[in-house]
Amino acid sequence: MATLLLLPLLLLPLLLLVWKLHLGPRLRWFAADLAFALRALRCKRALRKRALAAAAADPGGPEGGCSLAWRLAQLARERPAHVFLIHGARRFSYAEAERESNRAARAFLRARGRDAGLGGGAEDEQAAAPLAPGATVALLLPACPEFLWLWFGLAKAGLRTAFVPAALRRGPLLHCLRSCGARALVLAPEFLESLEPDLPALRAMGLRLWAVGPEAHRVGISDFLAEASAEVDEPVPGYLSAPQSIMDTCLYIFTSGTTGLPKAARISHLKVLQCQGFYQLCGALPEDVIYLALPLYHMSGSLLGIVGCLGIGATVVLKSKFSAGQFWEDCQQHRVTVFQYIGELCRYLVNQPPSKAEQGHKVRLAVGSGLRPDTWERFVRRFGPVQVLETYGLTEGNIATFNYTGELGAVGRASWLYKHVFPFSLIRYDVTTGKPIRDAQGHCVATCPGEPGLLVAPVSQQSPFLGYAGGPELALGKLLKNVFRPGDVFFNTGDLLVCDDQGFLRFHDRTGDTFRWKGENVATTEVAEALEGLDFLQEVNVYGVTVPGHEGRAGMAALVLRAPQPLDLAQLYAHVSENLPPYAWPRFLRLQESLATTETFKQQKMRMTKEGFNPNALSDPLYILDQAGGAYLPLTPARYRALLAGELRI
């Protein structure tokens, strides 16, 4: 009893030390930090165990292949009848997904010239050179079951897949196909009309062309689904897809960088394996039904959504296009429990009029990124109780953060426990020079609480950076050396984050000119180069502006005319819609006599961003994109008020 009475006195020095070192606020979250760290360690152990089992499996069996192939085969054996995919009225079990992808794999193997012993199939009518082992096949498809069967089939056939953004055409499309070294392209029949001007260039590149439907025969393109349906659905030997190294590239996902045109990020077998743990880290369960309305050509949709679902053996409701008006009815119909979002989708939902379907739903967890605090608060207040788990990550990056505590506006935690499992640092960054600040010894300096810093993560065998397809110059600036000690190497995310005194991480800004709109990265150089193709424009400055009530930043272009030519808005709209994906179209135009530059002749993007697009404050002629009408219209004070009131869509 005496010892118990003395315990508070014995603990008093420790409590005073905690108070003096300002550790109190951080210790408040220790239990949550510890629980997540333990979950992460269990997840890592489980993935390692799966990988070791696959390595020891019979190479002639389906579970001896790459991480994607053996996981699907494993689920088809363990949970054959469990529903894997729901798309509209179509439902596929794990066993059916395995069989569909086996047919696709065999069709691709036949295209490789490996038909011996495969059985089934028909002779290849297309006089094309066989695809070499490890060749890249590009997919230009919407989010649909066929996208998954072809992706899984390519993995099983030992071929690399390139996910081409569905909106790309002309120059950007050809650039993407060349950069990843694609030898074949599979496209959706509904894209044929818009792709028709590109077909001669695609054929000139020597690409083997398939379409997922018979409509393509009129332009001389083979029907891949017909070829696959002629194949048997028996398992494909694992040795055909087993990589020599887990670091080998198995996939290309295109990401817009500050260089302008999309870059093909190399995705390794290791990263695919790691992404199998995504939903386990989020706390999702095998019984969950996950709603996915994100493009599959993005990492969020494919690696986190689909591969993450495979990781726990759950069910995914796949939507080709998100509909805010249909969302809650879908959730009720399919008994959805988990929703994977980008911030813009949540904003669409909270701006919808109330409906009966939003009451009594089963959604308990919303996982994603880019959710603004105001939308977050409105979402939970209206649709709760829903746990929002905001995350942060990059396609080519080696670091991810999880806001497992649900702290409003945060993207994760910087506890020592989390950083022990997923190491990273925030370092001081000079926005003027665009470089990290270094001390007298040449080392970077860690930030203090509340100070924006550049997020960097150490590069190691467990957390590599594979770079991009193409020349090494594409990865310039992505690796920082001698950060804290001589010889160390860190991945530069290019993003500024802030860590507060409680250890919460909050996104601050991007270091480059790239901005996000409609959940997509928009590179200002790509937009500017497209606009400079118009002969009546002499100079162009593209930047992002904040629009009240909208996520991210909308594109705005300051234009200088080439005298004596007038501004042709109709030609400008036609040119933009022809050469840029819709999310990259400038929402605002500003006509100027000359562009503002710095003393070193660099364009004043920051100043232009601050000046915005208010016609009451700017004397320059301003224009706004009217997507419904397919034109740029003068931005009058009345249209400006309508935009702020949410009555005008951009």
From TrEMBL:
GO terms for biological process: lipid transport. It is an enzyme of class 6 (ligase). Residues 526-602 form the AMP-binding enzyme C-terminal domain. Residues 1-20 form the signal peptide. Belongs to the ATP-dependent AMP-binding enzyme family. GO terms for molecular function: long-chain fatty acid-CoA ligase activity; nucleotide binding. GO terms for cellular component: endoplasmic reticulum membrane; mitochondrion; plasma membrane. Coiled coil: none annotated. Its EC number is 6.2.1.3. It comes from the Eukaryota. It is found in: Cell membrane. It holds the Pfam family AMP-binding. It catalyses: a long-chain fatty acid + ATP + CoA = a long-chain fatty acyl-CoA + AMP + diphosphate; a very long-chain fatty acid + ATP + CoA = a very long-chain fatty acyl-CoA + AMP + diphosphate; tetracosanoate + ATP + CoA = tetracosanoyl-CoA + AMP + diphosphate. This is long-chain-fatty-acid--CoA ligase. The keyword Metal-binding does not apply. It is a multi-pass membrane protein. SUPFAM superfamilies: Acetyl-CoA synthetase-like. The keyword Transport applies. Residues 131-410 form the AMP-dependent synthetase/ligase domain. Keywords: Cell membrane, Fatty acid metabolism, Ligase, Lipid metabolism, Lipid transport, Membrane, Nucleotide-binding, Signal, Transmembrane, Transmembrane helix, Transport.
